[in-house]
Design a protein that fits this description.
With about 160 residues, this protein is mainly α. The protein has a domain of about 90 residues. It is built from five helices and no strands. It is elongated and about 100 Å long.
């Protein structure tokens, strides 16, 4: 949970810098580094939530309050979603709605590509596991066949 909180704090700090910059009269496009920092921190929060969900073992599930953990996850994510919405409106209010639209379109395209690569990688790993299983089965059958042949020859010739 600490990792999630730290990542969320990075998003909050970047958002505050962005908000102060816009209030001081800076153009949203001139603060693209801060916008990137916010979205990088948002990505870290999402990654940490997924990692925490994978990390939770049965022992971990019995320690602490599940409600407390759920509240932490949901509240952090909701705050970040609200901040992202405010960033969108910063672009729109600056007359840059087309830029925001292109950003979101590009984000969707990149995410689709990443998802496709992940599914290909997962399918490849699954194929590799199936191949190893099949080769192990064939090797087992060959060893068993050789053992049975050896036993039959021993019984026929050894007698």
């Amino acid at each position: 949970m600490l990792e999630i909180t730290l990542a969320a704090q990075g998003a909050f700090k970047a958002f505050e810098l962005l908000k102060k910059g816009v209030a001081a009269g800076k153009e949203i496009e001139d603060m693209s580094g801060t916008v990137k920092q916010f979205f990088a921190a948002k990505h870290r929060v999402e990654t940490e939530v997924k990692a925490a969900e994978k990390r939770n073992t049965k022992k971990d599930m019995l320690v602490g309050s599940a409600l407390e953990e759920a509240i932490d996850y949901v509240e952090e994510q909701q705050r970040i979603i609200k901040m992202e919405e405010k960033i969108k409106w910063m672009y729109i209010n600056a007359g840059k709605s087309a830029v925001w639209s292109r950003i979101k379109t590009e984000q969707a395209r990149i995410q689709r590509r990443r998802d496709l690569e992940a599914s290909k990688s997962k399918a490849k790993a699954s194929e590799d596991e199936a191949l190893i299983r099949d080769l192990s089965l064939i090797a087992g059958v060959l060893v068993a066949g050789a053992a049975i042949t050896g036993l039959i020859l021993y019984l026929l010739l050894g007698s």
